[in-house]
Structure of Iron ABC transporter:
Amino acid sequence: MSYTAWILLTASLVGLTCGIIGTFLILRRMAMMADAISHSVLLGIVVAFLITKQLSGGHMLIGSIIAGLLTAMLVQFLHSRGVAQDASIGVVFTTLFAVGVVLIATKVGNAHLDVKHALMGEITFVPWNTVELPWIGAVPQATLMLFIVLIIVLAVILALYKEWKITSFDPALAASLGLPVVLMHYLFMTLVSVTTVASFDAVGAIMVVAMLITPAASAYLWTDRLSVMLMLSAGFGVLSAVAGYYIAVWLDTSISGSMAFATGLVFIASFLGSPSSGVLSRFFRAPAVIEE
């Protein structure tokens, strides 16, 4: 595959995976948790590096998952003690992210780990960091990881589809039916953390947040069926990735930033043109006022 094709494939995998996970974030009204985890995983990455002195490997994934789960647990703990959920998220993720930034500035030294890379990523470097696979050849490491994470996410979502549906729409009913609501919550937070860290190195925190929230929010305007929303959200994620790349080429600017911008364009189009909830459709459906 060509250099451009690897970039588009990697970004599309981010859009697919984040679109699927983002659907349940929106339905569970936990959109800002995506922002929290995408920033707090920086602390897990830094701590994993300080322990191992290596910038790649499974320890990075483990450290990020632990940081993501720690974020979810601290938010839940503060919320159970009477702190508003949005305030809990704000306090936890800013504190953990700040600790990660301080550790980078004071402990990491000359390693290629910096705040700008964490926020914006560097998807143009993805095709150069490859691994050899039997019968396939050289494959970018980030692309392979994203593909594996997509398979894991799809497997978990499909295996527990009914459970995800019930716990997302009516947690009280799920608890009354004997479903492990708390366990499902932390399993979902694990999926969010894994998705975030798999996307983190390639596209940075800003695009991860955009891809987790905006395509799903756009899809929510088009349908009230979960299965359709999942497909639309994943499709909007891929569309934003591809369109954002060509916008970046056209304007000669940040690829990740342009992809995040493209998600906003998709949302605006959905907000205006959705046949059920769009501004324009509601305007044209408005009953005419008959004046005497």
